[in-house]
Amino acid sequence: MKSKLSDNLRRVKDRIANACGRVDRSPDEVTLVAVTKYVGIDVIRQLVESGCGDLGEARVQELTQRAAMTEEMGQRSPGHALGSAKGQAPPNWHMVGHLQRNKVKPLLQWVSMVHSVDSLRLAEEIDSQAAKLDKTVDILLQVNAAGEKQKFGVAVGAVPHLAEQLVSLENLRVCGLMAMAPLAGEADQVEWTFARTREIFEDMLKDRALQPHFRHLSMGMSQDFEQAIERGSTMVRVGSALFEGIELEKPDNPD
């Protein structure tokens, strides 16, 4: 398993580097978020020990359980943090799936960034719960660039206005945008979605009220992260490409 995971991780990083090279970007500009859905805790440990310090989950229950398990393993290690015995910092956990307001409270103890904020009410709940923890939470606004009815996300025209409303919330930092391309879309549809989100992002960069934290574009998954990088993505959310050939688990109680 360790060898297979290392090979997969190397291939993904090579693809990131090649995509960056095609548009004259440095691979250091792109953060790989390994989406650990359906992999066991031993795989997560290997990921972190291989230098993959950003982990993502689409379900609150699985993120909280896995984050707690990694912390517990770290406390049994000499450095008191998973990976620290080899010089790595403990992993950052990213919430990359749809988030309901009633699940914000258990999430905030563990999460470093929420990629999927799509309403003022959700943002206000995150801010309220973060204040109780004396914590500031980094968030991204999820954009429904293609206007797909079956997807969550803020409508294109409403994104700047929502960002303006969130600036006053003291326990949030609006750090950028997140988008998902159509899963069954043609290449030109995928390209258009990423390009449109990048246009919105660049327009919002001019808003001084969002600076200095507004700097991330979370676009691209296993099937399209190279296209996303070529359109300016700074974070790619990769799962299946990392875990090819590795036995997966199924959740007992999906959210």
Describe this structure in words.
The structure is a single chain. Strand 5 (137-143), helix 6 (159-166) and strand 6 form a beta-alpha-beta unit. This protein has an eight-stranded parallel sheet with strand order 7-6-5-4-3-2-1-8. It has helices spanning 2-22, 41-49, 60-75, 104-108, 120-132, 159-166, 187-204, 225-230; strands at 31-35, 54-57, 92-95, 113-117, 137-143, 172-179, 216-219, 235-238. The chain has 255 residues and is of the alpha/beta class. The protein is globular, with a radius of gyration of 18 Å.
Query: Main beta sheet: strand number and arrangement?
Result: 8 strands, parallel
Count every helix, treating DSSP H or I runs of 4 or more residues as helices: 8
CATH architecture: Alpha-Beta Barrel
Counting structural domains, the number is 1
CATH superfamily: Alanine racemase
Low-confidence segments: 75-87
CATH topology: TIM Barrel
Strand order of the largest sheet: 7-6-5-4-3-2-1-8
Give the CATH class. Alpha Beta
Number of strands: 8
Per the principal axes of the C-alpha atoms, what is the gross shape? globular
Structural class of the helices, strands and pairings?
A: alpha/beta
